[in-house]
Specification:
Blueprint (H helix, E strand, L loop, with lengths): L1 H13 L2 H19 L6 H16 L4
Helix pairs in contact: 2-3
């Protein structure tokens, strides 16, 4: 019983809004970093993706 309750509390903590937004925004930021290697348009695309990741981080979850 205690093991189930503690497991439930740990899962609830991990699924809080901050963790959920990081699951989405971290791959976006990594993708933006990879795209920034492309000459000429890479930095512009990276800035756009980084801005979108910031918006995801600011979601009130």
């Amino acid at each position: 019983m205690l093991l189930k309750l503690s497991s439930l509390l740990i899962i609830a903590t991990l699924l809080s809004g901050c963790v959920l937004t990081k699951i989405v925004s971290v791959p976006m930021r990594v993708g933006g970093a990879v795209i920034s290697i492309i000459p000429v348009v890479g930095n512009t695309a990276h800035d756009g993706i980084d801005t979108a990741a910031d918006v995801v981080d600011d979601l009130p979850l």
